[in-house]
DNA sequence: CTCTTTGTACGAGTTCAATCGTACTGTGTG
DNA sequence: CACACAGTACGATTGAACTCGTACAAAGAG
């Protein structure tokens, strides 16, 4: 069966294989522990929705630091939101030296909630 | 019980046509006004997730009153949650005499966020 | 009319999350 | 070593949302 595509023809978000020998991920829920309520709550915040969407659309196989997102918020606020995403099971974070890089757990989320990431990728930020 | 999974991965939750001459719906957002953040926030509450899921799986072409759901909460709490669902654009409510009946806006939600309702239908409530 | 039923409106208490300043830890560089 | 840098931990404040009691409104039955 071919990968799922959304109604408007947007290509489905696909998972890339991870190279071995990476730093271990920070504490996160296992795939089967990821709960829909928690994921939806995490994604109901516009800033976190922006973060996940940007990761999905622009990340090109690399993890990214907080700074890469260009978010105009103090560091302590960003820590809060990245932690919320990780603890909900949406992102994985790894420590590279003094940087902490994030990527979306695409394979896990597609397995658990097929189609959800496509909705995030198609999302249009409010205002403007 | 209707099957919820299809061979092609398209939304399995189907919209039924509405008969004419119904009471007018209570105030609700238009399709294009429905926002993903708001919908996700509304669905991040386990009780509301239960309500929507039950409507999707057991509603058989009829609208339902608050009492039909068998929720062990005071009436004022139920009013709160049904209002939240309606104002998010997830459900439509109509006044039938002294009853206020709800159903999910399946067509609108499938058009706006394809696949989302399938995730709700497949959800497993916690603690079981 | 009264009584019952279904649900709302309002308000209070409580809980929880978002925001962010400050202080701090750990890592790499010169 | 000292210093810069990425990010955390902690705590305070704020505001929103959940919960629910009480009082009230509208509709139908008798």
UniProtKB/TrEMBL annotation, chains A, B:
Signal peptide: none annotated. Residues 17-28 have a biased composition (Pro residues). Residues 38-118 form the HTH arsR-type domain. SUPFAM superfamilies: Winged helix' DNA-binding domain. One of its GO terms (molecular function) is DNA-binding transcription factor activity. It comes from the Bacteria. Gene3D superfamilies: Winged helix-like DNA-binding domain superfamily/Winged helix DNA-binding domain. Residues 1-28 are annotated as: Disordered. This is ArsR family transcriptional regulator. The lineage of its organism: Bacteria, Bacillati, Actinomycetota, Actinomycetes, Kitasatosporales.
